[in-house]
Design a protein that fits this description.
heterodimer, A: 169 residues, alpha+beta, Chemotaxis protein chec, 7-stranded antiparallel beta sheet, 4 helices, B: 139 residues, alpha/beta, Rossmann fold, 5-stranded parallel beta sheet, 6 helices, 5 strands, 18% strand, globular
C-alpha cells in the first residue's frame, strides 16, 4: 500500500470518531496533533494495540501506540483500584476494553453513514524498544494529546471497491 | 437487597459498573466473565437484573441473552455494549433484552436503566438511548 492508496476521507472520519469517543470516555479535552507518515517504527512507545479493519469497501489496520505510563494514567483515571494492583495484565485488559469502545463507536459511526466495517478485537504488543515493521503498508499517524499523555493513532485504510470474496478451496 | 449480575469480559468495565451501583447501597453484585458464566450464574443466583456485554468468550452476550430468556422468560437483561449498529441492537431487543446502553455511558444512565428494569418499565425508545451517547463515562 502506497500513500496514494490511502482513503483520506475515511481516515478523517475515523479519526473524528476516535477523538470524539476518547473525549467522552475520559470526559476530557483531546487535541489532535499534526499528522505524519509512519516510517515502520513506533516513536519511543512501550505499548501498541493492533486492530484490523474489514469492510465491503475498505480494508486496513489501525495501531494505537503509547508509553506505558500513559496507559497506566488512563486506566487509573477510570478505575483506581485496578491500577493499584500494579499488574500490567490488568492495565492491558483495561486498555483493550478502551480500544474496543473506540472501535465499536467507530463502527456505529460508519454504519450510520451507510459504510459497513468490522474491526477486529485488539491485540496488544508490549515491551521495551520493540519495533514493528509493516513492509506493505504506509500509515498515517495522528497524535492525540490529552491529560494522560500522547496516544498515536497509526492508520492505513485502503478503499478497494466491492466486497472481496474468498473462493472456497 | 436486589441482586445484579454484571456480565463483561473486561474487569475495567465490571469494576466501573459495580462502583456506580455500590454508590446506591441498594444492590448485591455478582460478576460473570463470559456468556457461559453469565448463564450459569443466572441459574444459580437468580439475579433481579443482568447487565450483559455482547463481545465475550465462550458464548457472546446475544447467545447468553437468548439462553437466559429461554430459561426464564421474565429475566430482566440490559445490554451494555460498544456496538451500536441498529441490526445488532434490534436482535438483542428481539431476543428479550429490555434495554441497551452504549459504552461510554453516564452513571445516571445505567442507574436509571436498572431502576426502570426493577420497576418493570417498558423499553425506552431507541432515540432516547442515542441521546445518551453524548454523556461521558465518568461524570
Amino acid at each position: 500500500m502506497c500513500i496514494q492508496d490511502l482513503d483520506a476521507n475515511f481516515i478523517e472520519l475515523f479519526l473524528d470518531s476516535i477523538e470524539s469517543t476518547f473525549s467522552k470516555v475520559f470526559n476530557t479535552e483531546v487535541t489532535r496533533g499534526q499528522m505524519s507518515i509512519w516510517r515502520n517504527q513506533l516513536a519511543d512507545h512501550d505499548i501498541a494495540v493492533v486492530t484490523g479493519i474489514i469492510g465491503e469497501e475498505h480494508t486496513g489496520m489501525v495501531i494505537y501506540s503509547m508509553k506505558g505510563c500513559t496507559a497506566e494514567r488512563m486506566i487509573q483515571f477510570l478505575d483506581p483500584s485496578l491500577a493499584k494492583e500494579n499488574d500490567m495484565k490488568m492495565i492491558y485488559d483495561g486498555l483493550s476494553e478502551i480500544i474496543c469502545i473506540l472501535s465499536g463507536n467507530a463502527m456505529t459511526y460508519f454504519s450510520e453513514n451507510e459504510v459497513e466495517i468490522d474491526i477486529t478485537t485488539p491485540s496488544i504488543v508490549a515491551g521495551n524498544a520493540f519495533q514493528m515493521h509493516m513492509p506493505n503498508h504506509t500509515m498515517l499517524t495522528a497524535d492525540l494529546l490529552s491529560q494522560f499523555g500522547t496516544m498515536d493513532v497509526n492508520i492505513a485504510i485502503k478503499r478497494h471497491g466491492k466486497k472481496h470474496k474468498i473462493k472456497a478451496a | 437487597m436486589k441482586k445484579i449480575l454484571i456480565a463483561d469480559d473486561a474487569k475495567l468495565m465490571r469494576d466501573i459498573i459495580e462502583h456506580v451501583l455500590n454508590e446506591t447501597g441498594q444492590f448485591e453484585i455478582i460478576n460473570a466473565h463470559n456468556g457461559r458464566e453469565a448463564i450459569d450464574k443466572y441459574k444459580s443466583h437468580k439475579p433481579d437484573v443482568v447487565t450483559m456485554d455482547i463481545t465475550m468468550d465462550e458464548k457472546n452476550g446475544l447467545e447468553a441473552t437468548q439462553e437466559i430468556m429461554a430459561f426464564d422468560a421474565n429475566a430482566k437483561i440490559i445490554i451494555v455494549t460498544s456496538l451500536g449498529q441498529d441490526k445488532l441492537l434490534n436482535a438483542c431487543l428481539a431476543s428479550g433484552a429490555r434495554d441497551y446502553i452504549i459504552k461510554p455511558f453516564s452513571k445516571d444512565r445505567i442507574k436509571a436503566s436498572i431502576l426502570n428494569a426493577l420497576e418493570d418499565t417498558s423499553i425506552v425508545s431507541k432515540q432516547t438511548h442515542r441521546s445518551h451517547l453524548d454523556m461521558p463515562i465518568v461524570t
